[in-house]
Amino acid sequence: MTTVLHTLAARALNITYDASGDINWVDPSDGTLFVYNMGDIAWTLASMALVWIMIPGVGFFYSGLLRRKNALSMIYLSMMTVAVVSFQWFFWGFSLAFSETGSRFIGDLKYFALSGVLEHPSIGSTRIPSIVFCIYQLMFAAITPILAIGAVAERGRLWPLIFFVFAWSTLVYDPIACWTWNSNGWSFVLGGLDFAGGSPVHISSGSAALAISVYLGKRTGWGSARLAYKPHNTSYVILGTVFLWFGWFGFNGGSALSANLRAANACIITNLAASVGGLVWMFWDWRLERKWSAVGFCSGAVAGLVAITPASGFVGVPASVLFGFMAGTCCNFATQLKFVFGYDDTLDIFASHAIGGVVGNLLTGLFAQSKVAFYDGVTVIPGGWLDHHYIQLAYQLADSVASMSYSFVMTTIILWIMHFIPTLRLRASPEAELLGIDDAEMGEWAYDYVGLEQEIGVGSLTDGEDGGPGVGGGREGDHTHVHHHEKTVGEGDSA
């Protein structure tokens, strides 16, 4: 009886299994046979899990860079984002990004509530079914908003962020993902190259973080010459970097959607760019204080990973060294932009992700090679400057400018709409900011002694606002990816 039921289920889905174990699916509309490779399915699903672990990795990375009274909220936000985007992706996010019947800018509701998303071939690869591609792409959609909302650190209310993540994913991430990766998207049709998310993930989140920082304004005490900023828990920063670096093999390598040479090449250049980026950033920091910064190394590694992301399926191994060097250099110096323009980007998200994404996109236009893309035996591109396809740089620039501008403007619009709905205003009260977001918004803390301080009446005043020593030295943690540059905020230390 069980065998009969299994046979009926297989017939209902029009699938059979060949001798190698691969799935054969026949399109009932025209009789076309599609063969789903079990190895590719396994690699894509494993990569999905790798990308998932990056999301709490962002939470720990950000948490370690903040003051301890705000440490828990950022880890919580990483998990909240997974939940909200998972529902949004099921509801209409996947359809808006990857339906084949939409416009050049955004899809339609063909796959609303994942209707018809199961055994049909995916838009990303005909070697895996749509449901596999859907769950893999969900992880990209989930990690992007948490990168952006790190900009609310230490001064943002938590409830409005649930609404913001849903709205931002719908109005910002899905359109950019559509025009970048959907075969109908304007950038894809134009010839833009973005293997794993330079524009949809990093430029969009970094630009959104800048918009959030400008909208929220500066934290209380920002710019005071008596406050020195350092991360409260460097071990969290390192732990977050470990999760990110580890997961990035699925982020870039998995974007091949197949266990092939292109995926292997993406993995090795991902590791190399991160290594070079970490070392370069650390050396730039060393010149200021003659000390070796773990935070600087981790920040540079993340910058290298960001920059190599759009290029990882298009460039050779030697080029990844330059990607790491340029990311470690440009993103390091870009952390000083907040002092030049006077915005309070607590975690330097714009410098690391938006600038890093632009660096990666432009270098892809220079170093993309058709032979590397063809490592999968399928993809054919004209290449970049190395292959004498000089217009490619213009395509990459157009995509970068469009993504940065659209994300910044649309994020600002969302924030100001929320501003005029009192329950959705994002800025926390001065009292909540002084007390700490963990206590004010959650009633929980990352560390027991933070609650003990509140009980005995010293509370956040030992966290640096009054210049007192506090627990652990009493130095504030403005973040910083490049904390050596911020010995004294407001003095404008040159990079």
From TrEMBL:
Lipid bilayer topology: Multi-pass membrane protein
Subcellular location: Cell membrane; Membrane
InterPro entries: Ammonium/urea_transptr (IPR029020), Ammonium_transpt (IPR001905), Ammonium_transpt_CS (IPR018047), NH4_transpt_AmtB-like_dom (IPR024041)
Gene Ontology molecular function terms on file: ammonium channel activity
Name by which UniProt lists this protein: Ammonium transporter
Domain spans labelled Ammonium transporter AmtB-like: 42-447
A GO CC term attached to the entry: plasma membrane
SUPFAM superfamilies hit by this protein: Ammonium transporter
Segment forming the signal sequence: none
PROSITE patterns assigned to the protein according to its UniProt record, in alphabetical order: AMMONIUM_TRANSP
Taxon lineage: Eukaryota, Fungi, Dikarya, Basidiomycota, Agaricomycotina
Keywords of this entry: Ammonia transport, Membrane, Transmembrane, Transmembrane helix, Transport
Similarity section: Belongs to the ammonia transporter channel (TC 1.A.11.2) family.
Region called Disordered, residue ranges: 461-495
Gene3D superfamilies for the chain: Ammonium transporter AmtB like domains (1.10.3430.10)
Species of the source: Mycena sanguinolenta
Cross-referenced PANTHER family: AMMONIUM TRANSPORTER MEP2
Regions that span the bilayer: 41-62, 74-94, 128-151, 158-176, 196-216, 236-257, 263-284, 291-308, 347-368, 403-421
One family name in Pfam for this protein: Ammonium_transp
